[in-house]
Write a structure and sequence with these properties.
With 242 residues, the protein is an alpha+beta fold. It has six helices and ten strands, in the order αααααββββββββββα. The chain has helices at residues 4-14, 20-43, 48-59, 62-72, 76-116, 237-240; strands spanning 122-128, 132-135, 138-149, 155-164, 182-185, 190-192, 198-200, 203-211, 219-224, 231-236.
């Protein structure tokens, strides 16, 4: 059965249906109807090519059919499903990136620590931390703290600070030496540090180095500038060791 014109009519008629599953279903139903009409004409003794012409004529203007079908089959649910599918893909990609970041976070920590500390600094024991605080659009978490000794033999505390943000395009906080996080230990020693930020997906990391921290201090408080006022994060130095 030759249905060249019929198939051309069919493609034009369903072309306005944006959601693919709906378009395929309607296309199948119309195709079956076209075949049935064609067989009716053939049964009446109409030549095959002429039967095809009569089928197309009987079906009417394809552009008008296209417009009517487009009104009936609105793309709302199709758009919803496509959006959900896109969100699922993004969530999977972010999960993979987060997993990769977890696996390699310690290597990143070592590289940043080497960058932040002066040459000749010897890092002693490193202990994970978990304290966090919210400051404006960011949630800060102290991931690790390390005791170290620089080339002059002075005690140094190294702190890895991470900022989480719901917006991947949001840059890091506007910090400089004068408004960078300060540290005060349990013996009353205050020190200030500033280090460039390493930007990752949805996160920013800092490696902060503080000198003058008493080796016998049991804890320290990291003070972060915030729109709501200074916020403090505790660091347990007993875990870090002397």
């Amino acid at each position: 059965m030759k249905t060249d014109r019929s198939l051309s009519w069919l493609r034009d008629a369903v072309g306005g249906i944006k959601y693919k599953p709906d378009r395929k279903r309607v296309e199948k139903e119309l195709y079956e109807h076209l075949i049935a009409r064609n067989e009716d004409f053939l049964a009446q003794g109409v030549p095959e090519r002429e039967a095809d012409e009569l089928v197309v004529k009987a079906m009417g203007d394809p552009e008008e059919t296209r417009r009517l079908l487009a009104e009936v089959y609105k793309p709302f649910w199709g758009n919803v499903i496509r959006t959900l599918r896109t969100l699922v893909i993004i969530a999977l990609v972010l999960a993979v990136l987060a997993l990769a970041g977890t696996r390699h976070s310690y290597n990143v920590f070592l590289e940043m620590r080497a960058y932040a500390l002066p040459e000749g600094t010897v890092v002693k024991r490193t202990i994970p931390q978990s304290a966090s605080v919210r400051c404006g659009d960011y949630r800060f978490r102290v991931l690790r703290a390390s005791r170290a000794r620089n080339a002059e033999g002075e005690s140094v505390l190294v702190v890895e600070l991470r900022a989480f943000t719901p917006d991947p395009f949001l840059g890091g906080p506007e910090w400089n030496y004068f408004n960078a996080p300060t540290l005060i230990d349990s013996r009353g020693n205050v020190s200030r540090s500033y280090s460039p930020c390493l930007s990752l997906v949805f996160t920013h990391r800092w490696m902060l180095s503080y000198g003058g921290v008493d080796e016998n201090a049991e804890w320290a408080m990291l003070t972060l500038p915030s729109p709501e006022g200074p916020q403090t994060v505790p660091i347990d130095l007993r875990e870090v060791g002397p």
